[in-house]
Design brief:
Length: 252
């Protein structure tokens, strides 16, 4: 990309670690996070099934097959329904949907006999995007070559793909800014990928790094951004490689 320059709005020009100017960031009014942990879940199972009103196992005339009981707990249908409920709506922390799901979960625990289930309120740091843009421009006149939609395509039969902008595409916790810089492709953005670019003499300082989503080598998205930041990159764009995503993958 010697003649082309990329204009990719993602992270600030100087450093990816710049703090966000407060006026550009909206903070959640409140964020609700359930504090009902697995422990409570198992305690509830214990409470419900270890001390039932009638014994679960009373040989020699047991009218209940304990093996069958254990194999059916928790019920597959309930798990399926609950998971469907949680995953069919976007519920980013601090949103109305988040609150509804927290209260729904609390009510379920109460329904199961845990009267003291309650929603705890926390105030963590969390940013939401105000505006986002990703474009490729031709230097030096900056003619627009490509403008990314930043939206998932709607797929028939996939209801969640129809929730456009339910969760806008952005890097959570990323700094605010506007950057135009040359683009460097860095595979998965692992430390080994950056070391390879070093060995080729590719300069990533001040560049926008394009990396594939993916956890090969157990690498988290934040680690990709951090690896780029440590080398002085101006920004990072992460994308899902179609070959590794969705319909290109055969059902397992
Ligand atoms: C970002 O910079 C470009 C040109 O460098 C400018 O056209 C655009 O308005 C800027 N966007 C924001 C949000 O500042
Ligand atoms: C890498 O690029 C940056 C920004 O263009 C420049 O300041 C720096 O000197 C370059 N480093 C090397 C080793 O060429």
């Amino acid at each position: 990309m010697s003649k082309k320059h990329s204009h990719l709005w993602s992270l600030p020009p100087e450093k990816v670690s710049l703090p966000l100017p407060p006026e550009k960031v909206s903070y959640p009014r409140r964020s609700l996070i359930l504090r009902l942990a697995l422990l409570a879940f198992f305690l509830s199972l214990l409470a419900l099934y270890c001390r039932p009103s009638r014994p679960l196992y009373s040989p020699p005339n047991a009218d209940l097959d304990i093996d069958t009981l254990l194999l059916n707990l928790p019920s597959t249908a309930n798990l399926r329904n609950d998971l469907k409920y949680y995953t069919s709506t976007a519920h980013v922390a601090g949103t109305e949907a988040d609150r509804q799901q927290a209260e729904w979960t609390r009510d379920k625990f109460r329904e199961y006999g845990i009267d003291r289930a309650e929603v705890q309120e926390y105030w963590p740091y969390l940013n939401y995007p105000v505006s986002r843009r990703l474009a490729v421009v031709q230097a030096p006149e900056e003619g627009l070559l490509f403008e990314a939609g930043l939206r998932e395509d709607v797929v028939e039969g996939d209801e969640t793909s129809k929730m456009q902008d339910a969760v806008p595409t952005f890097h959570g916790y990323s700094a605010n800014g506007n950057v135009t810089a040359r683009l460097v492709y860095a595979n998965y953005g692992t430390p080994a990928d950056f070391a390879y670019l070093d060995s080729l003499g590719v300069n990533v300082t001040g560049a926008i790094i394009l990396v594939r989503y993916g956890d090969y080598g157990d690498i988290d998205r934040g680690v990709k951004v951090r690896a780029a930041e440590l080398r002085g990159a101006a920004g990072v764009v992460i994308y899902s490689d179609p070959a590794e995503d969705g319909c290109a993958q055969k059902p397992k």
